[in-house]
Amino acid sequence: xxxxxxxxxxxxxxxxxxxxxxxxxxxxxxxxxxxxxxxxxxxxxxxxxxxxxxxxxxxxxxxxxxxxxxxxxxxxxxxxxxxxxxxxxxxxxxxxxxxxxxxxxxxxxxxxxxxxxxxxxxxxxxxxxxxxxxxxxxxxxxxxxxxxxxxxxxxxxxxxxxxxxxxxxxxxxxxxxxxxxxxxxxxxxxxxxxxx
Amino acid sequence: xxxxxxxxxxxxxxxxxxxxxxxxxxxxxxxxxxxxxxxxxxxxxxxxxxxxxxxxxxxxxxxxxxxxxxxxxxxxxxxxxxxxxxxxxxxxxxxxxxxxxxxxxxxxxxxxxxxxxxxxxxxxxxxxxxxxxxxxxxxxxxxxxxxxxxxxxxxxxxxxxxxxxxxxxxxxxxxxxxxxxxxxxxxxxxxxxxxxxxxxxxxx
Lengths: 196, 204
Known about the structure:
The complex is a heterodimer of chains A (196) and B (204). Chain A has 196 residues and is an alpha+beta fold. Chain A is built from two helices and five strands. Chain A has helices at 2-53, 170-195, and strands spanning 60-66, 75-82, 85-95, 103-110, 115-122. In chain A, strands 1-2-3-4-5 form a five-stranded antiparallel sheet, with helices on both faces. The radius of gyration of chain A is 23 Å and the shape is globular. Chain B has one domain. Chain B is built from eight helices and two strands, in the order H-H-H-H-H-H-H-E-E-H. In chain B, helix 3 runs parallel beside helix 6 (108-118) and helix 4 (67-89) packs across helix 5 (91-97). Chain B is globular and about 60 Å long. The two termini of chain B are 28 Å apart. Classes of the chains: A alpha+beta (196), B mainly alpha (204). Chains A and B meet through helix 1 of A and helix 4 and helix 7 of B.
């Protein structure tokens, strides 16, 4: 009686163990196979985003990582030089006040700090609402184009700023402004460090 | 005939989202547009077919007492594999489906079909069942997404036909419940009609 019980217990454990081992091995294998292609597409995405936020730029890119004044993680500033002169910079920035976790954004500035273009890198905002921060889904990001944050207040109108928030997605709009502002301040700081 | 019945079972008679009321979470969360509904539906269909096939294949190996953890491990493994493969080799698809894929693990339709069908039937029948259930789920999500997008954004499949915003509540969570309720109600009209007809035939 007790023997039979022991056997079934062993049988249960073994079959579950076998399934888990096979699952883990398969996952490990697939992870290894897909690691390089996934990294490649991620790098390609960043290069692509730099091109998009610095239109008409041809020349060299020099990237540095720098801590922002307010924020948990460092930002990457890709300085762009054409013929030895500073053309501008593409800043990889982020925000932690978004609706669904952190989202990352690439912002292009000219040498004086005027915003050229913005491009969403990764985000998980609500489809149909918050995801309108992406150019693909609405015109919301276009209002930042060619604005100088020195005169254009990077806050939504209900916070006494100059930005028209997305209807029913004020949190996402605020987060977007936060990310752009962090990029702008960090760009100024990096520029000072780099060119003085 | 029997095979056909297994396949079409999920469309109307046992539609997972509208009759069995399974997979409610994705049905409410991602149906803000018709394309989102379609994407989530097709991704779920794919996982359903594969997990049904594997679980049916292993149905004699997995002891009854540990079948639920075994099913969950198989389903979760499968979803992770699909997620990694899509990210690595079809980045364009990952762009549009990326956020939905990890959600499939918590979709109880997949576990439900493993438990109710795949663990008791042959591999081929289980694949048919997964395909039928998945397509039924896709259809339900597409219909819901279609109406929410139409009313909430004034758009059909991403093409706007009005200026500005629609009736915003339909894109928000309460609108999801409204549309879900009405779609279920509509669905309940169909079989009733049929049973009345058969009753009439009997009395005649």
